[in-house]
Every structure is written in structure tokens, then in C-alpha cells.
Amino acid sequence: EAGVAQSPRYKIIEKRQSVAFWCNPISGHATLYWYQQILGQGPKLLIQFQNNGVVDDSQLPKDRFSAERLKGVDSTLKIQPAKLEDSAVYLCASSLGVRGPLNEQFFGPGTRLTVL
Amino acid sequence: GQNIDQPTEMTATEGAIVQINCTYQTSGFNGLFWYQQHAGEAPTFLSYNVLDGLEEKGRFSSFLSRSKGYSYLLLKELQMKDSASYLCAVRGASGGSYIPTFGRGTSLIVHP
């Protein structure tokens, strides 16, 4: 079974530039998550999709961050314009659903973003 | 909202046993997860608890007490490769669905 795919793996940009990340979840997984993980901290949920609908985006800085999941499969996360404090690893994860006995998340390798 | 607390760092000796604690506050509790994350890698799933008690899986066990808002991860027969960050995550209710919240992780250092 193929895992969660993310690209690019690394990105270096200057502040005020734009950047986009792509995620392809495990086939059949209805729920997709985007996390921001700053060095030394746990993952912080930015947005959670159920199919192509948003379940929660309460921690997404909507003035600069946007995300979409067209057709309920792939997803993109965009930052425009980037700030120095956006330097982090952006993790995408997917799960079969959100409730029920397990539904553990499977994580992609992440995109390491450096904003100069 | 949800709040999760776990120690920042722990050290242990190869072959020993270590217990990593996690306390949480959440509304609409729907499960607690433990993940392992090696430096520079993505988190990988270790265990899941939704009912009180102990879940055992090989060298790893996880315990949950919902009334106390408390869980621990127990690692036995420690190996050098167990040096990693251990993340406690709680799934709680939010706006009609469930969302996960992660703690900041406990960095475990295993030395010979």
C-alpha cells in the first residue's frame, strides 16, 4: 500500500514570497490533515478535511494561509506572503475517518520550509 | 479547547524500562494516541486507547485513565533505536466532528 506522498521535500524562499505544498493521501482515506511542526514542538493542526469539506480550520492563519482539497483526494496548502515565523516542517496526514475505534493517522514525509 | 502536557525530555539506559506520562484536558474525548518520531522523520503510530486500562503491543504498552485525564507509554527492554520523540495526541470533539491535538512531545535519549 502506497503511503502519503508530499512534495516538495524542501523549499527555501524569501519573506513575502509565496509557496505551495502538495499532498496525495492514502487511497480511500476520507480525512486529510495539514500540520505545522516547528522545531522542538509537536505538530499543530492547521486544517482538517473530510472528503472535500473543511472540518476544522480554527488554527489556520487565514490572512496568509489557504488550503483546498478538490475532488476529495489531493490537497494543496499555500502561504502568501510568507513570514520568517513560517519556517517549519509542514506535515500532511490521512486517516480512514475521524471517529470509530481507531482511525490512526498516517503521515507523509513532510516539507521542510525555510523562510529567509 | 484541548490541552496536553508531557515532559520535555527523559533519559534512560539501554535494556531498562521507561514510562512517559501525558495529562490532558479535552471536551468530547474520543481516543488517545501515541506516536513515535525520529529526528527528521514523520511521526509513526504506536498505540491507541479509548477505554480505561492497559493496551500491550510487544515492548510497548499504553495506559489510559479517562477520569484522571492521564495516560502513559511504557517502553520495555529499551534499545538505542528507541531514542526519539514520543508524541501524545488526544482526539476531541469540535464543531460536530473530532479533531486531534498533539502534545509538544517527549524527547527520549537512550544511552548504553
Task: Tell me what you see in this structure.
- The complex is a heterodimer of chains A (116) and B (112).
- Chain A has strands at residues 5-7, 10-13, 19-24, 31-37, 44-50, 53-56, 65-68, 75-79, 88-95, 106-107, 111-115.
- Chain A has no helices and 11 strands.
- In chain A, strand 7 and strand 8 (75-79) form a beta hairpin.
- In chain A, the strands form 2 sheets. In chain A, strands 2, 4, 5, 6, 9, 10 and 11 form a 7-stranded mixed beta sheet that branches. A 4-stranded antiparallel beta sheet of chain A has the order 1-3-8-7, with no helix packed on it.
- Chain A is mostly beta strands and 116 residues long.
- In chain A, 0% of the residues lie in helices and 47% in strands.
- By secondary structure, chain B is mostly beta strands.
- Chain B is built from no helices and 11 strands.
- Chain B has strands at residues 3-5, 9-13, 18-25, 32-37, 44-49, 53-57, 60-65, 70-75, 84-94, 97-102, 106-111.
- In chain B, strands 2, 4, 5, 9, 10 and 11 form a 6-stranded mixed beta sheet that branches. Chain B has a 5-stranded antiparallel beta sheet with strand order 1-3-8-7-6, with no helix packed on it.
- The radius of gyration of chain B is 14 Å and the shape is globular.
- Chain B starts with a strand and ends with a strand.
- Chains A and B meet through strand 5 and strand 10 of A and strand 5, strand 9 and strand 10 of B.
